Request: fold
Amino acid sequence: MPLQKTSKEEIIKKAVDVFRKNGYYKTSMADLADACGLLKGSFYYYFKSKEELMHAALQSTCEYYSNKVFCIAYDTSLDAKERFITLFNKQAPFLTDDLAGCLFGNMTLETISANSSFQFILQKFFSEWKKAFTTIFELEHDKETSNVLAEQSVMELEGALMMMRLYNDKKIFEDACMRVLEKL
Reply:
């Protein structure tokens, strides 16, 4: 296989897809190098370990969500329903196109009891997601109710993503999104 010129950012982007589909423990450095068009030895030039790459993948994806998805919750030009619909439409392809689900949910289920080094970034992602939903719910509900609705909604959507993967059915996630909208 010919070596391709690449960057850390390109490697991270490709690694996110591999980790989402295969999981952390079932993904080898050879799998990651192959997905990036690199020889395994060349891959270590960019990342010392799979764990280092996973941290970079989680951090990069968390930043993407903060800057491109969760920020929709704070868009004052949209009403509450429009914010949810826009947010769902922005994130749905990333979560459902290949039925691989949520990188953060998948990694939480797979790694949290065996590798606590990812815990901080996993918690950060879910806290930011809940905060975004709380902000939207506060347009229609008091703060305490909004916090409860946001937490329930994040849990329902993550559960729906898990069931979507299990049953190979995007409609499960779409239905969960509709139930979140009904809470407004």
